[in-house]
Design goal:
The chain has about 80 residues and is mainly α. The protein has 3 helices and no strands. The longest helix has 23 residues. The termini are far apart. The relative contact order is 0.07.
């Protein structure tokens, strides 16, 4: 991964961290904000012309990672 991509991931992490704090602070249901974020992510990849199977495989990898990696903080 290039340095520019790493920097963009860092920026995205900061932005999403603030968004998660807002969702939780406003008492938004975790299912609702989780689905909203999934929708935004999938739409972004579709607009980049990623093929369906690549998107689904990425989601499968995220699911697997979330089941094998302990959470860093409780929600």
């Amino acid at each position: 991964m290039s340095g520019d991509m790493d920097a963009d991931f860092d920026k995205a992490d900061v932005i999403l961290s603030a968004a998660l704090e807002q969702f939780q602070g406003q008492g938004v249901n975790q299912y609702v904000w989780g689905m909203a974020l999934v929708e935004v992510g999938v739409l972004a990849l579709v607009k980049l012309d990623e093929d369906d199977e690549s998107i689904l495989e990425s989601v499968r990898q995220f699911i697997e990672k979330s089941r094998t990696t302990p959470p860093t903080q409780q929600s």
